[in-house]
């Protein structure tokens, strides 16, 4: 609740202060305050619009006491306001000098204050205007003319009626009981009992008005003070007074004020530190300190507002962090769906939530063990190794031996005699006896945690029968753990991974370790035979969003030890489930998982059957038995490239060495559903062609259109003045003369008409062009650039697992400029966001979108840790082409001997190019037929562009050309020819200054030199080629 | 000795060692320092689902035991 207080500073200075309680003061500037207090537990805070709306009809405006003469009072905006000495004296006399001297304050609070005045501003600095009629009404209501001492309230129909002026007038002299009665009567939504200050507030809220009414308001202060005197400390506070107040200040430093109030407000959530009954006059103590109960949210700050609305009182620790500062922008929807990174938990709100929140403020330390003081051993250190089942002892009861998570919930502890059994209900009772709120530790809550604790303890008992020997699964241990969990979750606001995920506050894609607690369903066993390895099509389906709907996938329950969540496994993981590699008790490191069926925050206790974690094999790894459950800190280790499974979904992170980067290509999706891939050069050509066709069509349309225009009797709107003038001018013999005689108005008409006609013409023409282009199928091209990168998995030098490196071909769609320019062959990278499509024995095919994949180069030091992976490009000569394995790519610089004719084969255009270099010389070259000094390169291109131009220009004959990424094919033994194929990744070039082709420079220059002196040899070779071709033809 | 063992018995399990479900509370979603970590990666997650020789022989044992238990129950 808010009050206004008048403080005397040194000398004759007085200040107005806003204070949450009269007992507290803040040494800050005064400001006008618009307060909305709503005791209704509706979580939605009123918006500015709400307030203004209310304000317009139930205006309650008060004018702060201020007098001429003493400019010690300041308005919210910092302006000095004159206060008459006489007024002050009068005020003092009314207040009683002693009181005034002691407290120097006037307290005022209201239930609803909505004022409007151009000098009032919202928190964002917008001026709030009030009509003069509104002011008049206010004045009348407040009785300003006759009696300035008080103000009136005019409530909206559904809003409590506040005491009338007369009632308020009576405040001063009436007993508190009367006031209270009055409030009770009028405040249907308000607190059942109201602190005295609150009551006083009705009578004494004082707002500074800039309208010159201030000076006449002094009485209101004085009269209020009567009520206020000696009653700064609330004696009794309602238990249900959840009050939202919005404080609108006219000061410009609202944000700083808000901040300070925020920090103060959050304090009472640790009531232990602020015992009740603190001296009410303490200047530093915030409101609720003396209340010792759930606090009124004054700040209208999202963080605060939420905290009052939530089930989880655990938000305490988050107050200082991300709560929004802007107090007036709270979404109208009470469910503020935050991004996943938000720290505010979002739970359904309602009275129960408020109650819980309220209860939480009585938080008692339930577990004395948390936070743990001494460092304890980890499970691994304590047990010194994984359990050994061979030691499983006979004395472990069957109930424990065969317990699973589901049966754990029903487990009953029996005492030795077997007469007394303790189940989860009894634990619920015990926990509440320890001081836990039953609202937080509900039956469901206890049942859930009981289940996981009992299961865990039973697991210790059967895994370590010697160490445990019945001492772990005990009543006292269970209750201790329950208390510990209550302490962490309720009192400390800690939330486990599953809870954070289903509450929408953490991304399910974060890396976490979860344990399989149950197998919910197995996939159909046929899966294995039907899909030995997902095909490319399957992979496509898998990468779609609905693949999990397939009934052929397995479903398991995963737990973080606190809560559980069902998870759907993708096809490869389902196969692992069938193979028995996923089993109850297995811990999984899950990364990059999705969430299906999740529409908004839910409680993990709800156990929704629709919400599923979506796990895929490339983001799901087997974890060590002792790994800590829950979210993992830091970036996880990258998945070894060789472990990536085709069709196994997104690979969160992996390590690769780039061996080859291929030129950017362009894939055009055609209207008929097909597609064509082009090189950069071809694409440029296509763009040019496309633009040419478009402009040709446009020109055609335009010339047609021009003919139409030239047609004399076009539609003309005769009704228009301009049209008439045009008609006259058109028919006139000397239009210039006519125009000269026209009035300026007529000329304007004419010009406007002409402009309009022209605009219409343009628009018509544009439409026609567009239509014609569309009809010609040229309305747009669907072209996507892509970059292919050949990579290889990295093997650590220290890894005992040696094997051949696995190759991968990554297609980056729409590569970023940075990726195009910075990716380098020979460099190792950590790559994120790759999606595995399919794989064959040698290569796995992955793809990525330029914008969502990141390529982080490994430092040379880190790269040193891995086996070398890179074979730099080098120019191969014909003499050592035999060393290049079949189907392997190679680069060569050679002299073009002959460029063959373009021919069509199937749907492809093909062309053979014969090259040679000087590497084979001497007698070998001359012994015709035996020397392998010719290389035949096959170029091909999809025959879709109706482009008759050659792939390779005949002009190239005789010149030296560098070829990159030719693929070696089997030799033509009959003709003694090396054969190679140029794929879409191949390039040829005649200049070697570009990066990535310098390795050809030297070879090219050698070949060129050789060509200069070997004209005859080249001619001979050409003849040989012609013979071969002729032979083929015949 | 008797007293000693009694003390041990009375020790709450929770004080003996840290459970694997005692999660750490921290902010996630904050940018892990990609640059530094990216450069320092030398460890890879080497476990391949298709490999049967899982380093963690506990897993194998657990599987065997679970199978046995299922048969018994």
What does this structure look like?
The complex is a heterodimer of chains A (1034) and B (73). In chain A, helix 7 runs antiparallel to helix 8. In chain A, strand 13 and strand 14 form a beta hairpin. Chain A is of the alpha+beta class. The N and C termini of chain A lie far apart (104 Å). In chain A, strands 12, 13, 14, 15, 16, 17, 18 and 19 form an eight-stranded mixed beta sheet that branches. In chain A, strands 20-23-24-26-25 form a five-stranded mixed barrel. Chain A has 33 helices and 32 strands. Chain B is mainly α and 73 residues long. Helix content of chain B is 49%, strand content 3%. Chain B contains four helices and one strand. The radius of gyration of chain B is 21 Å and the shape is flat. The two termini of chain B are 39 Å apart. The relative contact order of chain B is 0.05.
Identify the notable features of this structure and list them briefly.
heterodimer, A: 1034 residues, alpha+beta, 33% helix, B: 73 residues, mainly alpha, 4 helices, 49% helix, 3% strand
**What would the average pLDDT of chain B be, to the nearest integer?**
63
Which oligomeric form is depicted?
heterodimer
Could you give the count of β-strands of chain B? 1
β-sheet strand percentage of chain A? 15-25%
Cα-based radius of gyration of chain A, to the nearest Å: 42 Å
Strand content of chain B: under 5%
Low-confidence stretches of chain A: 19-44, 51-71, 97-118, 145-361, 527-547
Largest sheet of chain A: 8 strands, mixed
Short description:
Chain A is of the alpha+beta class. Helix content of chain A is 33%, strand content 19%.
């Amino acid at each position: 609740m808010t009050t206004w207080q008048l403080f005397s500073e040194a000398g004759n200075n007085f200040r107005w202060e806003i204070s949450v309680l009269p007992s507290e003061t803040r040494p800050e500037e005064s400001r006008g305050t618009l307060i909305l207090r709503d005791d209704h537990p509706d979580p939605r805070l009123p918006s500015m619009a709400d307030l203004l709306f209310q304000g317009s009809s139930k205006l309650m405006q008060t004018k702060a006491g201020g007098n001429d003469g003493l400019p010690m009072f300041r308005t919210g905006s910092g302006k000095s306001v004159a206060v008459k000495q006489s007024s002050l004296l009068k005020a003092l006399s009314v207040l009683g000098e002693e009181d005034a001297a002691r407290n120097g304050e006037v307290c005022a609070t209201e239930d609803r204050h909505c004022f409007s005045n151009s000098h009032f501003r919202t928190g964002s600095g917008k001026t709030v205007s009030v009509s003069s009629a509104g002011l008049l009404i206010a004045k009348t209501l407040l009785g300003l003319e006759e009696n300035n001492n008080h103000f009136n309230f005019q409530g909206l129909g559904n809003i409590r009626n506040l005491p009338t002026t007369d009632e308020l007038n009576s405040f001063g002299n009436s007993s508190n009981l009367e006031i209270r009665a009055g409030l009770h009567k009028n405040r249907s939504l308000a607190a059942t009992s109201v602190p005295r200050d609150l009551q006083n507030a009705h009578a004494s809220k004082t707002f500074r008005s800039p309208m010159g009414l201030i000076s006449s308001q002094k009485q209101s202060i004085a009269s209020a003070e009567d009520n206020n005197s000696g009653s700064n400390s609330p004696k009794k506070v309602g238990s249900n007074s959840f009050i939202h107040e919005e404080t609108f200040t006219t000061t410009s430093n609202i944000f700083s004020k808000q901040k300070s109030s925020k920090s103060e407000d959050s304090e009472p959530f640790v009531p232990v530190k602020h015992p009740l009954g603190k001296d009410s006059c303490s200047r530093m103590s915030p409101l609720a300190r003396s209340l010792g109960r759930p606090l009124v949210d004054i700040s209208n700050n999202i963080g605060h507002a939420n905290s009052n609305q939530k089930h989880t009182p655990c938000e305490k620790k988050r107050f200082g962090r991300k709560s929004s500062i802007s107090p007036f922008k709270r979404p109208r929807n009470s469910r503020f769906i935050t991004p996943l990174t938000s720290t505010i938990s979002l739970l359904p709100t309602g009275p129960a939530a408020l109650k819980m929140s309220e209860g939480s403020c009585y938080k008692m330390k339930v577990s004395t063990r948390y936070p743990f003081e001494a460092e304890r051993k980890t499970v691994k250190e304590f047990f010194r190794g994984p359990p050994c089942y061979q030691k499983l002892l006979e004395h472990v009861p069957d109930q424990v031996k065969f317990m699973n998570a589901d049966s754990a919930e029903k487990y009953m502890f029996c005492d030795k005699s077997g007469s007394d059994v303790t189940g989860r209900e009894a634990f619920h009772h015990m926990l509440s006896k320890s001081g836990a709120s039953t609202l937080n530790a509900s039956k469901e809550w206890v049942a859930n945690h009981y289940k996981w604790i009992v299961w865990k303890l039973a697991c210790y008992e059967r895994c370590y029968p010697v160490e445990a020997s019945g001492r772990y699964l005990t009543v006292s241990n269970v209750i201790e753990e329950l208390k510990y969990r209550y302490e962490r979750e309720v009192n400390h606001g800690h939330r486990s991974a599953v809870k954070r995920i289903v509450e929408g506050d953490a991304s399910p894609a974060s890396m976490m370790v979860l344990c399989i607690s149950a197998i919910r369903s197995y996939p159909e066993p046929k899966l294995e035979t039907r899909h030995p390895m997902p095909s490319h099509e399957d992979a496509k389906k898998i990468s779609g969003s609905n693949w999990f709907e397939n009934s052929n996938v397995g479903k398991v329950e995963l737990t973080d030890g606190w809560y559980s969540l069902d998870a759907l496994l993708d096809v490869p993981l389902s196969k692992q489930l069938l193979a028995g590699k996923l089993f109850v008790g297995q811990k999984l490191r899950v990364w990059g998982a999705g969430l299906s069926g999740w529409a908004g925050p839910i409680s993990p206790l709800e156990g929704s059957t629709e919400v599923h974690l979506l796990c895929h094999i490339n983001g799901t790894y087997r974890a060590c038995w002792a790994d800590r459950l829950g979210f993992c800190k830091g970036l996880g280790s990258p998945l070894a490239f060789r472990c990536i499974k085709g069709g196994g979904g997104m690979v969160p992170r992996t390590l690769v060495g780039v061996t080859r980067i291929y030129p950017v290509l362009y894939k055009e999706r055609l209207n008929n559903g097909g597609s064509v891939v082009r090189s950069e050069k071809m694409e440029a050509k296509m763009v040019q062609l496309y633009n040419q066709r478009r402009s040709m069509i446009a020109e055609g349309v335009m010339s047609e259109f021009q003919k139409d225009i030239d047609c004399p009797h076009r539609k003309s709107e005769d009704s228009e003045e301009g049209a008439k003038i045009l008609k006259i001018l058109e028919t006139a013999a000397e239009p210039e003369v006519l125009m000269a005689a026209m009035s300026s108005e007529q000329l304007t008409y004419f010009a406007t008409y002409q402009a309009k006609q022209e605009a219409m013409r343009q628009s018509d023409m544009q439409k026609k062009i567009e239509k014609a282009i569309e009809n010609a199928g040229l309305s747009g091209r669907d072209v996507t650039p892509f970059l292919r990168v050949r990579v290889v998995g990295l093997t650590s030098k220290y890894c005992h697992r040696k094997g051949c490196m696995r190759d991968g071909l990554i297609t980056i769609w729409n590569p970023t400029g940075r990726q195009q320019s910075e990716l380098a062959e020979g460099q190792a990278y950590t790559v994120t966001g790759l999606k595995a499509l399919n794989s064959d024995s040698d290569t796995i095919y992955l793809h990525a979108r330029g914008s969502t994949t990141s390529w982080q180069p490994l430092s040379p030091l880190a790269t040193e840790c891995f086996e070398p992976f890179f074979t730099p490009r080098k120019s191969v000569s014909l003499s050592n082409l035999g060393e290049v394995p079949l189907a392997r790519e190679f680069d060569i610089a050679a002299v073009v001997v002959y460029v063959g004719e373009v021919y069509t084969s199937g749907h492809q255009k093909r062309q053979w190019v014969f090259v040679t270099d000087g590497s084979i010389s001497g007698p070998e070259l001359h012994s015709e037929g035996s020397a392998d000094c010719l290389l035949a390169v096959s170029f091909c291109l999809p025959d879709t562009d109706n482009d008759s131009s050659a792939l390779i220009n005949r002009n190239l004959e005789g010149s030296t050309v560098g070829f990159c990424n030719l693929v070696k094919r089997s030799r033509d033994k009959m003709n003694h020819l090396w054969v190679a194929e140029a794929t879409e990744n191949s390039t040829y070039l005649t200049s070697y200054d570009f990066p990535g082709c310098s390795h050809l420079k030297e070879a090219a220059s050698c070949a060129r030199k050789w060509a200069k002196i070997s004209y005859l040899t080249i001619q001979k070779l050409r003849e040989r080629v012609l013979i071969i071709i002729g032979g083929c033809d015949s | 000795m008797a007293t000693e063992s009694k003390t041990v018995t009375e020790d709450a399990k929770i004080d003996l060692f840290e459970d694997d479900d005692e999660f750490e509370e921290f902010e996630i979603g904050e940018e892990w320092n990609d640059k530094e970590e990216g450069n320092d990666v030398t460890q890879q997650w080497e476990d391949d689902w298709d490999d049967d020789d899982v380093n963690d022989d506990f897993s194998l044992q657990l599987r065997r035991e679970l199978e046995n238990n299922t048969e018994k129950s």
